[in-house]
């Protein structure tokens, strides 16, 4: 297998964390989708990462499709097999990805010249982030992880999203506002899978 992506992408990191947790052998190929030289379009017509290239040439995208594919391979599992337990973990994954989506929307809008930036759009995205983080803190409560004692795909997705916010939008000081998320984040950061996939400074 080969994973194509960027070291700074939180969606790519989500897949890399799962691969590391499962100790699955997978080549990593760095590719910048914003470059004219990107090769991602040949595998994903949307020119987005991550893309997982299987040994038979099949290309899988996006991150939720890839993690669904990888979870049954080896151990441990991060996604229940079926029912409401699976739906709740997938809901947590969607929350993490949604917070990330809103953060990236802000990051890209800020690349425009100040007079062209849509302040209402920026405020709307910030509102999504704030509401998402509040919901995450409420759901976590006093538990070690979102669904209890064990890390799930939801924890991985939300962790990658919130760590990306610290990397790109550090003014969103979620650890100070929600101590339970700070403790949860510290538990994730202590895992070798998260330490090994931290974006370069």
Structure explained in plain terms:
This protein has 201 residues and is an alpha+beta fold. The protein folds into 2 domains: 2-70, 3-Layer(aba) Sandwich (Glutaredoxin), CATH 3.40.30.10; 83-193, Glutathione S-transferase Yfyf (Class Pi), Chain A, domain 2 (Up-down Bundle). Helix content is 53%, strand content 6%. The chain has 8 helices and 4 strands, in the order βαβββααααααα. A 4-stranded mixed sheet has the order 2-1-3-4. Strand 3 and strand 4 (59-60) form a beta hairpin. The two termini are 27 Å apart. The mean pLDDT is 97.
- Determine the N-to-C terminus distance: 27 Å
Helix coverage percent of residues? 40-55%
Report strand %: 5-15%
Instruction: Please tell me how large the radius of gyration is.
Output: 17 Å
| Second CATH tier, the architecture of the largest domain | Up-down Bundle
Task: Characterize the biggest β-sheet.
Answer: 4 strands, mixed
**Total of domains:** 2
Kindly provide the name of the CATH class of the largest domain: Mainly Alpha
* Strand order within the widest beta sheet: 2-1-3-4
How much is the average pLDDT? Answer: 97
Number of helices: 8
Total strand count, please?
Answer: 4
Q: H/E element string?
A: EHEEEHHHHHHH
